[in-house]
Amino acid sequence: MSSIIKIGLPSGSLQEPTLNLFAKAGFHISLFKRNYKPAIDDPEIELRLLRAQEISRYVEHGYLDCGITGRDWTEENGSDVEVICSLPYSKATSAPTRWVLAVPEESPFRSVKDLQGKRIATEAVGLTKKFLEKHGVQAEVEFSWGATEVKVPDLVDAIVDITETGSSLRANKLRIIENLTESFPQMVANHAAMSDSWKRGKLERIVLLLQGALNARDKVGLKMNIAENQLKNLLSTLPSLRNPTVSHLAQSDWVAVETVIDEKVVREIIPQLKALGAEGIIEYPLNKLVY
C-alpha cells in the first residue's frame, strides 16, 4: 500500500487560482523559486508544478497519480485517463475558458467555411483539425509556440486561441468568428492509481474538500436574532431564508437564525432583515460548503 499520492498542479495562468483553491480547501502550499516541487502541509501528498498542456500525459503514463488540467488539453493529447470531476474555476472569473477561431477586425472572413485553403496558427493543433474536419474545411494548421495573436495577418490568416473574457483578442484588434469548445479544469487520474483503494480514498477526500471550497465561492453566512413571533413573517418575506437553522435563545421568545446566501444579495437583504426586527446581524465568509 502506497502512502503517497502524486498530484500535478498547473503552472502559468491557472497557478494562482489553483493554489488559492487548495488554500480554501485547507491545504497550505509553499512555493520555492525555480522549483517545480512545491511543499504542502500533508505528508501523504507530493506535488509537481507543470504546464497544464503536459499534465494529462504524465497522469496517463503513471508518472503522476492524478492532476488538474483543462478538459481541452486532455482531449488535445488524447490521454486515456479517468476524469474524477470538473472544477469550475479559471484565472479571472468562474466562467469557462473558450477556444475560439479569430481573424483581424478588417478581415472579410465571417465563418470557418471562409478559411478553405487558408493558414491557421494555434497551440491546439488537434482540436483545430477536428473542428475543421467537422465542418468539411481543409486548411493548413501550424503549431504556435506562443504570442499567437500577433501572427495575423502577416504570417497566417486566422488563429485558434484560448480566451476567457476576450479582452486580449480585442486589444490585438481580433474578431471571434467561431467557438470551438469550452473548458473547465478537471481532476484526472491514472487508471492504476484509481484501482489502489488507498489512493482512490485519498483522492476522493481531496476532491470533496476542493468541491466544498468551490461551492462556498460567492456565498456568505448570515446569523441574526429575531423575536419568535416575527419568524414566520421573516421566512415568508425572504425566500432566500426558506431553509435556515433556527434555534431557541436563552432569552424567552427569541430565536437565532442562521443561513447561507449569495454574497451579491447581502446588501439588499440586510436592511430588510433589520426592518423585520432582526438584531445582532452577522455576515461571515465561508471557506467550504459541502452539500
Description:
The model has no long low-confidence stretch (mean pLDDT 91). The two termini are 31 Å apart. The strands form 4 sheets. Strands 4-1-5-12-6 form a 5-stranded mixed beta sheet, with helices on both faces. It has a 5-stranded mixed beta sheet with strand order 9-8-10-7-11. It has a 4-stranded antiparallel beta sheet with strand order 14-15-13-16, covered by helices on one side. 29% of the residues lie in helices and 32% in strands. It has 291 residues and is of the alpha/beta class. The chain has helices spanning 15-25, 52-60, 71-77, 125-134, 167-171, 191-195, 197-215, 231-237, 266-275; strands spanning 5-10, 29-30, 39-40, 45-50, 66-70, 82-86, 97-104, 119-122, 140-143, 158-163, 174-183, 185-189, 219-227, 245-248, 254-262, 279-285. It has 3 domains: 5-92 and 184-215, Periplasmic binding protein-like II (D-Maltodextrin-Binding Protein, domain 2), CATH 3.40.190.10; 97-181, D-Maltodextrin-Binding Protein, domain 2; 219-285, 2-Layer Sandwich (Alpha-Beta Plaits), CATH 3.30.70.
